[in-house]
Amino acid sequence: MDAFLGLRPGDAVERVAATLGCSPASPQVARYLDQHDNLGHLRENFLVPKVSDLPPSDLAVADGGADCIYLSGNSLGLQPRKARSYLEEELDNWARKGVHSHTEGARPWAWAENTIEGLMADVVGAKTEEVALMNGLTVNLHLLMLSFYRPTSTRHKILLEDKAFPSDHYAVESQIRLRGLDPQLSMLLLAPRPGEDTLRTEDILEVIQKEGDSIAVVMFSGVQYYTGQLFDMHAITEAGHKQGCFVGFDCAHAAGNVELKLHDWGVDFACWCSYKYLNSGAGGIAGAFVHEKHKDTIKPTLLGWWGHDLKTRFQMTNMLDLQPGVSGFRLSNQPILLVCSLQASLEVFKTTSMQALRRKSLLLTGYLEHLIQHFYTEDPSQPGRPHVLIITPSDPQQRGCQLSLSFSVPIRRVYEELQRRGVVCDMREPSVLRVAPVPLYNSFRDVHRFVEVLGEALATSS
Ligand SMILES: *Cc1c(COP(=O)(O)O)cnc(C)c1O
């Protein structure tokens, strides 16, 4: 595999096909890439649903005993194999030792989340003390904004994407209202140029430069959930800082997907959920990051006992000994069962690195792109063939593993046909499919099968 990793993904696929003497679209290419994938064994750490277990599958057109083609890790990551035994351990501790489990055993509940924050920090490029696992993503976004959004009469705006994830949009809007300000005036929404699907970095930087004086917080996603665009977080952070803004990122679609260097980039704050690329299960415990440079200056607005220093937390003196940095933002004791499933996943990440995963990811997603372009044209002047436009940027440095495919035909029928055949991906009507080959557990064969099945689905539904 290493021989191909330096090449552009499309060139690597062509090179493999030439070596094998077959078409780049041949399943032989996928087989070869899987055989040479030094991360292929990681799939063993996850439970891949069988086609027969998926409600929409139709055993007349799909092999029920096969693994499904799971391409929805951007929405809900697969279950780590160890999650169940870790959960059972704590159910057992609860049953047999009750309250003693708060402080006893291999995973004492009272500080269990602290024991996996180092693993979490590695995945997002942070120091352990810059990361807290707590709450859900939107809750963390609110808690962080309560401290980082400090509007003044001249600097009161929050810059975000025009089509940000709804929860982020609502969170920002309500934070603005909470300060008695008008979202019409204080919410600065940045849309792509007319006729374009994604934002240009130069346009983002220009807005920050031009309007920076009035911007209190630049709040972007790391990877855009709909288009799959990976933003240049480093450049955005620098541009924001030059104008005196705080810069925060929602890394829901970036954590566990792309290499993050939250610390080195100097990002002020960040938050992310753990059930997408981090495989902790629906509603899993979320992450928050506050850069260490703010350790003594940025304080939590809302307080709870979990922000108190662990050493004296349970003395109950009501004299707050606030932990510095993000640790002080903790409010409640953390859900041990959610810690278990996240631990199971982070331990798999620990056996590799985001750098290695990213290397595979570039090839895996590049392979998907290559196959789509092989079979489907983006050129609407060619009649008779369905057109598929990849709205995700073609520059691999501007995307994670997800490709968002926009079809010239209504997508619902196609999507239903895909589901009948054991494909799990995401549909956004009227015409977009979001497909995420995850380097942690997806194979090149998954990608090849998907494209094959997509052909059948398009043929059947047209
Ligand atoms: C998935 C996602 C959310 C979901 O928020 P929860 O609080 O975890 O329900 C919010 N924002 C973004 C950008 C997301 O991708």
What keywords describe this structure?
single chain; 462 residues; alpha/beta; Aspartate Aminotransferase, domain 1; Aspartate Aminotransferase, domain 2; 2 domains; 7-stranded mixed β-sheet; 4-stranded antiparallel β-sheet; 14 helices; binds pyridoxal-5'-phosphate; pyridine nucleotide biosynthesis; pyridoxal phosphate binding; hydrolase; Kynureninase; PyrdxlP-dep_Trfase
Can you list the ligands bound to this structure?
pyridoxal-5'-phosphate
Intertermini distance: 38 Å
Order of neighbouring strands in the sheet with most strands: 4-10-9-8-7-5-6
Instruction: Kindly give the count of domains.
Output: 2
Rounded to an integer in angstroms, the radius of gyration calculated over CA atoms is: 23 Å
Biggest beta sheet attributes: 7 strands, mixed
β content, as a range? 5-15%
| Fraction of residues in H or I helices | 25-40%
Structural class: alpha/beta
**Total beta-strand segments:** 15
pLDDT under 50 segments (min length 5)? none
Order of helices and strands: HHHEEEHHEHEHHEHEHEEEHHEEHEEEH
As for the CATH topology of the largest domain, it is Aspartate Aminotransferase, domain 2
State the helix count: 14
CATH architecture of the largest domain: 3-Layer(aba) Sandwich
- What's the rounded overall pLDDT mean? 96
CATH class of the largest domain: Alpha Beta
Shape by Cα distribution:
globular
CATH superfamily of the largest domain: Type I PLP-dependent aspartate aminotransferase-like (Major domain)
EC number: 3.7.1.3
Pfam families: KYNU_C (PF22580)
GO molecular function, one term: kynureninase activity
Cofactor: pyridoxal 5'-phosphate
